[in-house]
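fwd from M.: "can u put these together and see what the complex looks like"

so here's what she sent:
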Amino acid sequence: MSAFTDWDILRNLLLAARWTVALSLIAFAGGALVGLLLTFMQISGRVVLVQMTRLYVELFQGTPLLMQLFLVFFGISLFGIDVSPWTAAALALTLFSSAYLTEIWRGCIESIPKGQWEASRCLGLNYVEVMYHIILPQALRIAIAPTVGFSVQIVKGTALASIIGFVELTKAGTMLNNATFEPFKVFGFVALIYFLLCYPLSVASRMLERKLHASG
Amino acid sequence: MPLVNIDNVHKYYGDNHVLKGIDLRIDAGEVVSIIGRSGSGKSTLLRCINGLETYSEGGIIVDQMEVTDDDSQIRKLSKSVGMVFQHFNLFPHLTVGQNITLAPKLVRKLSAEEAAETAREVLQKVGLQDKFDSFPGELSGGQQQRVAIARSLAMRPKVLLCDEITSALDPELVGEVLKVLETLATEGMTLILVTHEMNFARDIGDRVIFMHQGKVWESGEAKAVFANPQTPELQTFINAVL
Ligand SMILES: Nc1ncnc2c1ncn2[C@@H]1O[C@H](COP(=O)(O)OP(=O)(O)OP(=O)(O)O)[C@@H](O)[C@H]1O
Ligand SMILES: [Mg+2]
C-alpha cells in the first residue's frame, strides 16, 4: 500500500505550511503597507482620493477572493508577463487584505468621538495636528485587536492559492491525499495545522480587545 | 468696543431656522448666563462664537477678530476664546499635563518648560496641582471637568464659553466645578455660560439671556430677570425649573 507513514505525511505538510506562513506574512505586510497608504488617502479629505479609495475597497470587498486570484494570475499573463503562482498569490492577497485593513482602520478612526475633534479645534489645532496628536494615537489602540483578528482571514485565505497551483498547506494536502488515498487523515492534519496557526491569533486578538478595553 | 459683538446672526440647519437674528454685546469681565428650553438654540449660539458652527447671516466679532470657519482664523480665535464642554472631551490617551500643554506648545509656540509652567499654574487654579501625571480616566467627573477648564485657561483666553458643563456630573460633584467658575468670575474672566444652574446664574452672573425659539426673548441684569420676568414664556420657564 502506501509508502507514506503518518510521520511522512505530517512532515511534508509541515514543510508546506512554511509557505502558508510566508504567504500570510507577505500578504499581511503588503496589505498593511498598501492599506496604510489608502487610509491616509481616505483621511486626506480630498474628495477624489476618498472616492478612489472607496471604489477600491468596494471592489475588493464585493468580489470573491478566488476571482481576484484568477484575475491576477491569468490577467497579468494576458499582457505577456509570466507570473508565478507565488507572485500572483502574494499580489492578490496583498490587494485583498489592503482593502479590508483600510476598511477596518477607517472604522477605527471614525469611531473616535466627535468631541475629541471639537475640543482640539477649540484649542486651535489644525487638521494635521488633530490627526497626529489626538485621533490616530487613539485609533491605533482600537485598531490592534481587529487587525490581529483579520490576520486569521489572511491565513485561511492563502488556502485558495492552491487552486492556481501554489504549493502551500492545502495543495500539499491534496497531493498527499492523491498519493495515500487517506483523505480523512491527511485533511485532518491539514485542518489541525491551520487551527494551530489561527487559534493563537484569535486568542491574541481577543486578549488585546479585552486588555485595551479595560484600560481604555 | 465690546469683547464679543454678535450682530443679527441667523443660523439654519437645512430648513430648520435655529437662530433668528441674535444681537448681543458682551463686555470684558462680564458673566453672562444663557438659559432656555431644550432646542431653543443655546448651544448653537455658543458654538457660533468660536467658529465651531458656521452662521448664515450677520456677523460675530470677538476680540476684534471676525469669526469665520477659516482654519487660520479659528487658530487665531483659539487664543482669545476657550470652550468647555458638557462631556469634558479630555484626550484620554494623554496625561493631564499633556492635555494642558499640547495646544500652548503647538498653537502658542511655548517651549516645553513654559508650557509645563503654565500647566502647573492653571492646575493650581482649579485645585488639581497633584494630578499633573494622572490620566483623565483616573479622575472623577468633577476633576475631569476642572482639568478641562484648566486646559482652556492655559491658552490664556479672554472669554470662556461653557456649555452645560455641570450637567453630566453627579450632583455632589457640581459644587467643585461651580466653585472654580466663581473664582474665575471674581478674577475678572469673561464667562458665557449655557446653564441649568439657576442659582448660579442668579447669584454669580451679571446678566441673564433667556433664549426662546432661536431668539433672545428676554435679557437683563441677573437678579432682576429672575425676580421680575417680563414675558409669560420666561415666567413659565422659571416656574418649571425653580
Ligand atoms: N448638528 C445639528 N444638525 C441639525 N440640527 C441641529 C444640530 N444641532 C442642533 N440642531 C437643532 O438646532 C436646534 C437648536 O439646538 P441647540 O443644540 O442649539 O439647542 P439647545 O438650546 O442647546 O438645547 P439643549 O438644552 O437640549 O442643549 C434644535 O432644533 C436642534 O434639533
Ligand atoms: Mg445645548
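replying to her w this: Chain A is about 80% helix and 0% strand.
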